[in-house]
Specification:
heterodimer; A: alpha+beta; Glutamine Phosphoribosylpyrophosphate, subunit 1, domain 1; 5-stranded antiparallel sheet; 8 helices; B: alpha/beta; Pectate Lyase C-like; 11-stranded mixed sheet
Chain lengths: ~325, ~280
C-alpha cells in the first residue's frame, strides 16, 4: 500500500521536519516497515551535504545482511580516502548510526563521476547529495526514524516523505524511499503504486549510463526523471513524459531545491488528497495526513487522472 | 416467538400470500407476522425521534469509538446527531440501518457512511475514497468535494456531491442515484449495472466503461467513452426526471438539463435482455 506525504511553504520557512513527521505518522497504517524523509533545509548553501550509508539495517525479506560495526568503520575509512582522491574537502562529519553518515564537503567537479567513485566501494550507497537536501530513511515508523536522526528540529521550505509497506522487495534501507535523483543534486522522489515496465526501462536506462541501487520499482521514477533532465528536459516536462513512459499505477512526488511536484497515472488508481493555499501546499495519500498539521476546516480535493503539478518555494 | 422449526399451522403471512412453503428443519429464517411484533425486527436498528437532537465531538475519538457513540445515541432515541471535528477520520457513520438525521461538521476520510440503509446524512466538508459504498437507502449530501469510488456499488438512495469527485464514481453501481455538481474523473460508471449517475460538469476518459445497464447524464465535456458505452437521445421523461431530481439534490438551479448527454450500455459486452430470468438474477 504505502503512504506518501509532501508539503511546500511558499515564501517562508517552517519546521518541515516536525510537520512531515506528523503527516507520515498519521499514515503509519499504510506502511509500517520503513520511513523516509527528503527535507529541504535552510543550509547555508556553501557546501554539499553528502548522506551515505556503509551498511544495511536489515529487515524481513532483505537480500542484505547485518555486519559488524568494525566492517562499517573500515568502509568509512575507504570513503574518506576516496574523497581525498577526488579532490573533495571534508568540512564536517557526523556519524548518525553505526551504518550512516552525514558529511559536509566542498566539491566543484562532476557529481556523476563523484558518485560512481564513492559507490564503487563495497556496500556503500549515497543516499543523497545536495546543498539543501537532507535525505534520511531507515526502518521503523515516522517518529522512530525522526527521533533516531533528530529530524524534528529541521527548519526548511519543503519536504516529501514515505511510509513503506514492503511488497516487491525486502525491508531494508536500500529499498526504502525517498530515492535520490542520481546524479542531480537536491532531487528526490517518493512513490505509491506499482510499475509494471520496470525491467524494460531499467535495462534501457542502464545502457544510457544511469545507475540503480535497489530492486525497488519506485527507484525507476527517480532515474527516469534524472535521465530526462540530463537531456535538457525541465522537471515538469520529465514528469509529463513519465505518464506514458512508466506503465502501472502510481502517484508520486518529486522535489528539487526550490520546487515540489506531483504526478498521477492515467487510471488514477492511487490516492492523493491535496490542499493548496497562497503560502502552503500540503498533500498526502489520505486527508488525515494533512489534518495532522491543519486541524481546522480546509478545502481539499483529489487531483484527476494524468495530472501533473509543480509548485515553487 | 413462533416455533419456526415445526409450525404446521398456516400463518397469517402465508394466508396473505407472502410465502407458501411449510417450514421444516432448523432454520433462522423469520417471516413478518403482524400478530407477533417481536418477529418484525430489523437487527441493529432503533426507533429515533428526529426532534431529539444532540452533538458529539469526535476530535479525540478513533473511528470505532465515534461509531459506537453514534450507535449509543440512536439507542437513546436521538434522531438528529451532529458530529463535530471528524477531521478526515475513516469509516465514520457506517452501517446505520434506521432513519436518522446525521450531520458531520467537517470532512470524512475513507469509507464514510458506508453500508447505510435509511439515514439522511449531510457532510459540511469533503469526503475521501469510497463514500457511501454499498448504500442501500437514504440520502447523503456532500457540500464540498469527494474522492474516488464515490458511491461504489450503491444499491439505492440518493448520493449527492455538490463539488467535484475523483475517478470511478459509481463503480459497480446497482441502483439508486448519484448526482455530482462539479466534474468527475476517469472511469465514471465503470461496470455499473443499475441506477443513474448525473454529472453536471465534465467527465474524464472511459465514461461508462463496460457498463451492463443504467444511465449516465453528463452536462459538460466527455473525455472519452468507455467500452460499450453509447450515446442515447434525451427524452421528455429524462428531462422531467432530471429537473425533479436536481431540485431534490439542491443543486443545478437554472441548469438546462435538456442539453445534457445521455449515455447507456450498448449491450454488446453484456446483455441482460438475452438472459433467462434466473440467470439475470444470478448476474446481478
Amino acid at each position: 500500500m504505502c503512504g506518501i506525504a509532501g508539503l511546500i511553504h511558499r515564501g517562508k520557512s517552517s519546521n518541515v521536519g516536525e510537520e512531515l513527521q506528523s503527516m507520515l505518522q498519521a499514515l503509519k497504517h499504510r506502511g509500517p516497515d520503513s520511513t523516509g524523509y527528503a527535507l529541504y533545509a535552510n543550509n547555508d548553501g556553501q557546501n554539499f551535504i553528502l548522506r551515505f550509508k556503509v551498511g544495511e539495517n536489515v529487515g524481513e525479506g532483505s537480500t542484505s545482511v547485518n555486519e559488524d560495526e568494525s566492517v562499517y568503520n573500515e568502509r568509512k575509512k575507504i570513503v574518506d580516502q576516496k574523497l581525498s582522491e577526488l579532490g573533495a574537502s571534508l568540512v564536517k562529519e557526523e556519524k548518525l548510526t553505526p551504518y550512516s553518515y552525514r558529511y559536509e564537503i566542498k566539491y566543484d567537479k562532476d557529481l556523476m563521476e563523484f558518485s560512481k567513485a564513492i559507490e564503487s566501494i563495497q556496500s556503500v550507497e549515497i543516499l543523497s547529495i545536495g546543498k539543501s537536501l537532507e535525505l534520511i530513511k531507515d526502518l521503523g515508523d515516522a517518529t522512530a526514524v525522526s527521533e533516531r536522526y533528530g529530524l524534528n528540529k529541521v527548519q526548511g521550505t519543503h519536504g516529501i516523505g514515505h511510509a513503506r509497506m514492503a511488497t516487491e522487495s525486502g525491508v531494508d534501507i536500500k529499498s526504502a524511499h525517498p530515492f535520490w535523483g542520481y546524479p542531480f543534486a537536491d532531487v528526490s522522489v517518493v512513490h505509491n503504486g506499482q510499475l509494471t515496465n520496470y525491467w524494460n526501462n531499467r535495462r534501457a536506462l542502464e545502457n544510457k549510463g544511469m545507475r540503480f541501487m535497489s530492486e525497488c520499482d519506485s527507484e525507476l521514477i527517480a532515474v527516469f526523471l534524472a535521465e530526462k533532465m540530463r537531456n535538457g528536459a525541465t522537471l515538469e516536462e520529465g514528469m509529463k513524459e513519465s505518464l506514458t513512459g512508466l506503465d502501472g499505477v502510481f502517484t508520486y512526488f518529486v522535489a528539487t531545491k526550490d520546487s515540489l511536484g506531483m504526478a498521477k497515472d492515467t487510471m488514477a488508481a492511487k490516492p492523493l488528497v491535496l490542499y493548496e493555499s497562497d503560502d502552503l501546499v500540503a498533500m498526502g495519500s489520505e486527508e488525515i495526513a494533512i489534518r495532522s498539521i491543519l486541524p481546522q476546516e480546509i478545502e481539499t480535493y483529489d487531483p484527476f487522472d494524468g495530472e501533473v503539478k509543480v509548485w515553487q518555494t | 416467538m413462533a416455533n419456526l422449526k415445526t409450525s404446521e399451522k398456516k400463518t397469517k403471512a402465508q394466508s396473505m400470500g407472502m410465502h407458501t412453503e411449510t417450514l421444516t428443519g432448523k432454520t433462522q429464517q423469520k417471516f413478518f407476522n403482524p400478530d407477533e411484533a417481536e418477529n418484525f425486527f430489523y437487527w441493529g436498528t432503533y426507533d429515533v425521534d428526529f426532534n431529539k437532537r444532540t452533538e458529539v465531538d469526535v476530535k479525540d475519538m478513533d473511528c470505532k469509538e465515534a461509531n459506537e457513540k453514534i450507535d449509543q445515541l440512536m439507542s437513546e432515541g436521538y434522531g438528529t446527531v451532529v458530529v463535530k471535528n471528524p477531521q478526515g477520520k475513516h469509516s465514520l457513520g457506517v452501517g446505520i440501518l434506521n432513519k436518522l438525521n446525521l450531520i458531520f461538521e467537517g470532512s470524512l476520510g475513507y469509507f464514510g457512511v458506508g453500508s447505510i440503509d435509511g439515514p439522511i446524512v449531510r457532510v459540511n466538508g469533503r469526503v475521501g475514497w469510497s463514500c457511501a459504498e454499498n448504500m442501500m437507502a437514504g440520502k447523503v449530501v456532500i457540500e464540498k468535494n469527494a474522492g474516488s469510488c464515490f458511491g461504489a456499488a450503491i444499491r439505492g438512495g440518493d448520493l449527492v456531491c455538490k463539488g467535484s469527485v475523483g475517478a470511478r464514481t459509481g463503480i459497480d453501481q446497482k441502483g439508486g442515484t448519484i448526482i455530482v455538481g462539479g466534474d468527475a474523473g476517469a472511469f465514471t460508471g465503470f461496470m455499473m449495472q443499475r441506477g443513474r449517475i448525473v454529472i453536471l460538469g465534465d467527465v474524464g476518459i472511459n465514461l461508462g466503461d463496460s457498463m451492463y445497464d443504467g444511465t449516465i447524464y453528463v452536462g459538460g465535456k466527455i473525455g472519452s467513452f468507455g467500452s460499450d458505452a453509447v450515446e442515447s437521445p434525451m427524452t421528455k421523461d429524462d428531462i422531467d426526471w432530471l429537473n425533479r431530481k436536481l431540485k431534490v439534490a439542491e443543486i443545478g438551479d437554472n441548469f438546462d438539463v435538456s442539453k445534457m448527454t445521455k449515455v447507456v450500455a450498448g449491450k454488446k459486452l453484456w446483455n441482460y435482455d438475452a438472459l433467462e430470468p434466473t440467470e439475470k438474477k444470478g448476474a446481478i
